[in-house]
Design brief:
With 349 residues, the chain is mainly beta. The chain has a single domain (99-348), classed as Tachylectin-2, Chain A, CATH 2.115.10. 3% of the residues lie in helices and 41% in strands. The protein has helices at 15-19, 28-32; strands at residues 6-7, 10-11, 44-47, 52-56, 75-81, 93-94, 104-116, 119-128, 134-141, 149-155, 163-171, 174-181, 191-197, 209-213, 231-238, 244-250, 259-266, 276-277, 309-315, 321-328, 332-342, 345-348. The strands form 6 sheets. Strands 3-4-5-6 form a 4-stranded antiparallel beta sheet, with no helix packed on it. A hairpin with a 3-residue loop joins strand 20 and strand 21. The chain is globular, with a radius of gyration of 18 Å. It holds the Pfam family Glyco_hydro_43. Belongs to the glycosyl hydrolase 43 family. One of its GO terms (molecular function) is hydrolase activity, hydrolyzing O-glycosyl compounds. Pathway: Glycan metabolism; L-arabinan degradation.
Length: 349
């Protein structure tokens, strides 16, 4: 999820009330053109065991009208199949109806799911009981749609710093998790890490590598004043030539400036050095809104919605890369597209 602030290790607690649950409203042409009628933040998509696509998102409040439903801890949409993911309009169910586990309380942010062996592993952000610190939990299920249970604390850095936005992926039969890891930065800075995990879904911390630091770019603070230098929502993917890349979000989540960067990470999912932003990525995002209040992205996205971030890369059964992201119109809605190589970079159709 696009998060508010951790400054010098101090958690700003105001976020938990205002952003815990997303309500429902639509306004203007942008809402009408959304690929989902239900607002959904921080999407993560995969192919389920029945061949349908499932997209998860941050906790959602009660919906009324066309998509009438009760509040959901981890809402999910079911949509598409084969090479045509499409996008669902309304929430299909709750993947974590029992809540985030005894270690945590309140809403769940930015769930990410991957299938490893005969189980699905969900990594999610929640508030640690007693402190409110934003940390990552791990839960398991036999089905992509849950219920995900056995929620346990997975990463909770010292000194109140945040670990959020976990995105699991499988490579070479091994499970990895990329995530925002403020423990690798200091003060108002943030960072991204990746780590390999074992059969039970818990990390082998000796394998942790830093992917990127907020000091590696500058567009994350364009047009902002104070607060954290935000980079978050990492999603690692591999291209046909064996190169690994990471997409990530930056800047203020509730503004047209929230955007998506891409960095090249080499030929190993555990890179030997920090990834390198591509496409003038130090000074401008790769994908973003092209219009009033933008921050001069290198490229736009289909429909040119404001604040495109939380981009997750997923694969079709044939292995083609697709992307899902959210955009902002007072609330966040999701959209999918095809991620294709183009010259030395990428485009989304």
């Amino acid at each position: 999820m696009s998060k508010r602030r951790v400054i010098s290790g101090t958690v700003v607690a105001a976020l938990t009330a205002g952003l815990a649950l997303v309500g429902f409203s639509t306004s203007g042409a942008e809402a009408a053109s959304a690929s989902s009628v239900t607002p959904l933040a921080d999407p993560d998509t995969l192919v389920a065991e029945n061949g349908r696509y499932v997209t998860y998102g941050t906790s959602l409040g009660k919906q009324s009208g066309r998509c009438n439903t009760t509040a959901k801890v981890v809402p999910y949409l079911v949509h598409g199949s084969g090479e045509n993911p499409g996008m669902g309009e309304c929430v299909s169910g709750d993947a974590m109806p029992g809540g985030p586990g005894a270690w945590a309380q309140g809403a769940v942010w930015a769930p990410g799911v991957a299938r490893h062996g005969d189980r699905y592993f969900m990594y999610y952000t929640a508030s640690r009981k007693g402190s409110g610190q934003k940390c990552i939990g791990r839960a398991v299920s036999k089905s992509a749609t849950g219920p995900f249970t056995d929620g346990k604390e997975w990463a909770c850095p010292p000194a109140g710093r945040w670990a959020i936005d976990a995105n699991p992926f499988v490579s070479g039969g091994k499970l990895y998790v990329a995530y925002r890891d403020d423990a690798v930065a200091s003060g108002a800075e943030t960072g991204l890490s990746v780590v390999r995990v074992g059969a039970s879904g818990f990390a082998d911390w000796s394998t942790r590598r830093t992917l990127l630091l907020s000091t590696d770019i500058r567009w994350d603070t364009t047009g902002t004043s104070g607060g954290t230098h935000v980079i978050e929502n990492p999603s690692m993917f591999r291209t046909g030539n064996g190169e690994w890349y990471v997409t990530y979000s930056g800047n203020n989540w509730d503004s047209p400036r929230y955007a998506t960067g891409i960095a090249r990470c080499g030929t190993n999912p555990l890179p030997s050095k920090r990834c390198s932003p591509i496409g003038q990525g130090v000074t401008r995002p790769y994908f973003g809104f092209r219009g009033a209040g933008d921050i001069n992205p290198l490229k736009g996205l289909p429909a040119n919605h404001r604040g495109p971030g939380g981009m997750d890369v997923f694969q079709t059964p044939s292995g083609d890369n697709r992307v899902v992201w959210h955009w902002w119109n007072g609330q966040r809605y999701v959209k999918t597209g095809d991620l294709k190589a183009a010259g030395s970079g990428f485009v989304v159709d």
